[in-house]
Amino acid sequence: MKGRSNLLFMVMLFFVTSGFNRVVPSEAFQTLSLPSPTPTPSSGATPEPYIPAGDLPTPPVVLSVRQPAAAPLFKPGDAVSLEKIEMKSRIEGWGISGGKVLTTVDGGKTWRETTPPESFLAGAKVQAYGAFLDIHTAWIIFAMDGQIDPRASVWHTTDSGRNWTPSTPLNHQAYGDQVWAEFALLDEQNIWLMVRGVYVGAGTHYDHELFHSVDGGLTWSSLDGQTSDDYTGMAFADPRNGLRTLQTTGAYAPAPPAFDISTDGGATWQTRELPAPPGAPNLFERYPYCETYQPVMSSAKSIRMLVGCFDYKNPPQQFTGFLYSSQDGGAGWLTAPLPAKARAEQSQVVYLDAGHILLLGRNIYLSTNSGQQWKFVKMVNWDGQFSFIDPQEGWAIARANGETALVHTIDGAATWKVINPVISQ
Asked: Which of 23, 84, 174, 206 is the most exposed place for a label (fewest CB within 10 A)?
């Protein structure tokens, strides 16, 4: 009997000294991902050196995999009401309708749903914001009930929306009563994204956060924390040189209109003021509001923007505008007045080539000499978001009296024809 007791004591002592004194619950194996067995080294193997935890290499970021587009919500033949159109050729283009993303390959007559597979709360009002490089390549981010989730991802496609890849979360810090997004697209690798918020109430206050991607939108870096100015547009000539136009003046506090220049890809910005046009040296003193709009940056030296000056307080309402062009990075400027009825803050400018410029709004104008003179083309009774592919052919989302329509021109905006877009078969 005493021999058995000694034997039992020796067995128990063996297990204790061997380290088998911790029991792992069976349910733990349902959540742990166990590695593959590692071969046991021979007795002569050199042990691996000890590496302090702080010196361990950073694990690579694991990106989400490509996913098919969301299941269609429309049926073939259903009518489509577009909010934005961006054509890339005479037949190919992109459209946005609320939270739905669509493509066309027949000039806007029929459309195919290509929406990223984002998840939304039932009944939420969803809005998509996008940038479109060509008919194959696009980036999309969503707002839900007027807000962009701080953890939102940017979706990217390279096959016309058949499949989408989400980016890592933005983790943005832009807030407001309403938050939306605007893109500045340079090429397939370099994209800038401005997440913007606005607070309304006792004075309008804007908030924003700028992001830059150098890997086609898979990851995004936050660039600046400047939130005081309400910028009106942004453009980049290359990965380093950027331009922002600004609203900078307050009522009855006249000041020269200003713009921002970046030479480090948007990480920092320097504000510069514009000189008054030679023919109107007191322009910025006569108007309480003078602001810059619609920047174009063809190179670090070639800059164009609109300047709009207006006075809403003293009837009759007065406004005037100018096109500013620089070929030396903003050191010197060539100015040309806009047509009398053109509003810089309301018009859409399309630079078609070196000489041809369309100034689009309720009054449409064409310049064939880089904006030095303007020819009146057409007056329309609707507000539009325009997309032109050449001086003759273009499309617009026409809005009037709470309704929208897709319209098309092939004669340089002189006449417009309504298109009734439907979902393709």
From this structure: 23
